[in-house]
Structures are given as C-alpha cells and as structure tokens.
Amino acid sequence: MWEKQHFLIGVTGGIAAYKTVDLISRLKKKGADVTVIMTRNAKEFVSPLTFQTISQNRVYTELFEEDWDVRHISLAKKGNVLAVVPATANFINKAAHGLADDLLSTVFLAFKGKKILVPSMNVNMFDNPITCKSLNMLKKLGCYIIEPEEGFLACGDVGKGRLPETETIIEEFEYVISKKDLMGKKILVTAGPTIEPIDPVRYITNRSSGKMGYAVARAARNRGADVILISGPTHIPPPCRVKLIRVETAQQMFERVVEHFHEVDIVIKAAAVCDFKPKSTRGDKIKKTDVDFKLVLVQNKDILYELGRMKQKQILVGFAAETRELFKNARQKLVKKNLDMVIANDVSRADTGFASDYNKINIIYNTGEIEGLEKNTKENLANLILDRVVEHYC
Ligand code: PMT
What we know:
The protein is of the alpha/beta class and 394 residues long. The chain folds into 2 domains: 2-177, Flavin prenyltransferase-like (Rossmann fold, 3-Layer(aba) Sandwich), CATH 3.40.50.1950; 186-393, Rossmann fold, CATH 3.40.50. It is 34% helix and 24% strand. Helix 3 crosses helix 5 (103-110). The longest helix is centred in the C-terminal third of the chain and has 16 residues, at 378-393. The mean pLDDT is 95. The structure holds ligand PMT. Ligand PMT binds next to helix 9, helix 11 and strand 16.
C-alpha cells in the first residue's frame, strides 16, 4: 500500500517542524516516496538539507528559480497526497481563503489529490475563532484535519496545539490512503487475552498480546468500517477512530460482545478467551501458609459458540489456536461454532502466533476449501483476511 504513495509534505514555520523529520523517515521506511516543500519561515527551524537527506529527494522552497517550470503546477501533479505538517495558523488561514503567495500555498491551491492538514500552534491561536472558522471551511472543502493534542507547548503554555505523535499521524495517513471497501459495514473485533482472577493479586491468563486483533481492527477501520474493538488487557495504544471497550474476564467479554452483536455485520474473534476460570475468587490474598488451598477450575462460556447459535445476518470469523492437528481441530471449531471462516494458526511455532509481529495462517471456509497464506506481518494478514471476507461474503 505505502509503496504506491507519493506524498508531498509541506512544512511551515513552527517549532514542531523538527518532528516532521521523524515522520518523513517513517514514511520512507514504509516505502513511500516523499517530496518536501518548505516555506521560508520553516527554514528558520530546520535546514532543507535535513529534509533532502531524509527524503532522498530535492527539497523545494521557492516559487521562482532558474529551472522554473511552472513549478507549483508540476509539483501539484506529482503527488497523490499533500500533507502540511506542521500547519501554522498563518498557513491555515491563508489556505482557507485561497491565498497563494509562496510555493507551498500555490501548490496547495493547485493540488487535486487528498489534502491533509496537521495543525500545530499556541493554544490561543488554535482556539481563535478565525482559525476555528478556517479549519471548518477547509474540512467542508474536503481537507482532512488531524487534530492537535493537548499538553505542554513550546511557548510554555499548556493546552491544545501539540503536533500529535508520529505514530498517530502515520495511522491517520494510513486511514486516508486506504481503499474504502468496507464503508457502511459495522465490524466487531475481539482481541487480547482474558484474565481470570484467583484472588486480588493473582490470575490465570494466556500469552496473547492483542497484536493480531488490533491489526484486524485497524485494517477494518482504514477500509471504512465502523469498528467496535472489545479487548482484554494489552499494552497496545488505543487505535484512533475505533470504539474501544476494555474488559478483563471472559464473562465480561461475553456480555459486551452479546450486547453489540445485533448491530454488527461481521464479527472477527481474534481474542484468546480463557477456556477455564477459578471456581471461586478469594476476596483476600491467599497466604502461602494456606497449604490446603486447591485451585478448582470450571469452564467459561464459549462466546463464539453462543454467537453461532444466535447468528442471523452476521458473518462469523473465528481463529483457532492449535498446537497439533491444526486442520482437523480448526475444521471442528468451524462446524461446531457455526462459523463462515476460521483462521487456523499453529501456535507452537516460536516465530509466529502469540506476541509475535508475524503470523502464519490457513483460512478454512465454510465450503471446506482451505487457503494457506505465507508467513507475513499481522498488519498484512489482517488486510488479507478482510479481502477474503469481502470477496466471499459481502
Ligand atoms: O494476540 P496475539 O499475541 O497477536 O496472538 C494472536 C492469537 C494467536 C491469539 C490469534 O491469532 C488467535 O489464534 N486467537 C484465537 C485464540 C483462541 O482462543 O483460540 P481457540 O482455538 O481456543 O478458540 C477458537 C475461537 O473461539 C477463537 O476465535 C476464540 O476467540 C473463540 N473462543 C474461545 C473460547 C471461549 N471461551 N470463547 C470464545 O469465543
């Protein structure tokens, strides 16, 4: 996806310009082509040479130069996304009124692809009704605005105006450039482990990190779906534009999944739900002197099995985590839980599965057909799973 993108990155004169260097470095690592256009004021903060070195492309700063070739028009035709990072109040207010008095503002006016603005400025400048009105005008005209974050600002004030973290900007860019073939669909994704308390300090759980489920939720969100992510405890930052519901136990996950089931079109259950829980949970910490203590386990409800019984229009996709007889066990789950698709992964492998950034999956369809996919990143596999859902069931 990133390899096909040519980003024009406009840099205006704000202190956050130094963070744009990291952003461009990340875009390059993802395979995107990047051309930087700087305003004169931006050069006060970061040297064009820095952007040239990082982007591995010529940096443009002037409208009129010796090799002038109607530059604003040729540059405007070059990229498919134009993102201004950081976008100062001056640039935003100029752009909203169609003013074009330097290279970046003329390219902005002539550009016909996707436009993104990432405002960063003092909180009072951001809250100023003029800036608010300009941002609203630009939004109505189809510009995509990535909201600044609240926090400590370079000028010493505290408030809204900080450039978001690079990771957040990349996630928003990914949303903007993705195809929108799931627009209008509502998808429920579960992710992560559940934890089943023994006493106030101990619990049983499993090795799920949530990476697979979060990758599916992000990919579905990028492709235009309305996503509800029901997640057990993980260390993954909440994805933007996703309704995140945090749970701990299998019972809590069951209740929240059932609550939302009637409103969704597709369910993808990547969570590793604990099959067992302690028969009772102690209110106080169990002492090691309590030598007679025995941990008695009982079965949790099988959430997916219940969904299979309740299902009407919904497409149900389960995962099967197996350490042996992968296909036989996964097929049995597909039939027993009334699934449309099951993603079988062998979790005995050290290089894929639990907690890894990679997975190796086989997709088993309700027709009996099996499709083996190469080992790949969980991000790429999430998209491939959604491709198959769209192709076979939507
Ligand atoms: O989170 P990561 O570290 O990225 O790891 C990803 C993963 C290995 C957890 C993921 O790829 C995966 O395989 N998830 C399913 C794990 C699992 O619980 O598999 P299972 O074979 O025990 O369950 C089969 C299906 O029934 C799953 O969709 C599961 O969500 C569901 N289930 C299981 C038990 C239960 N009580 N309720 C359920 O709904």
